[in-house]
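Appendix B. Chain record.
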Amino acid sequence: MNRRRLDFEALRDTILAIGGDLDLTMGGRPVKLDAEPYSLRRTIYGFVDRKNLPNMFQAFDFANPDLTTGRRESTVVPQQRCS
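Structure tokens predicted for this chain:
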């Protein structure tokens, strides 16, 4: 399969899984992903503050939470360069 860039959610979950720290508990309340102590929950359970998106989300082409998007825009991000 061709290499592809991971979106923010998959990248964060992969890093936690590799470290053996990913919490796979299903359901529950949303958690703040950018507040210490950092949550180990899957990123899909992250709280999204529509007015104050963290810069970390924007750096990885996080979808605009105010719009319906069928596909995310893709930009060249040095942290995820495919060579």
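Further analysis of this model is presented in Appendix C.
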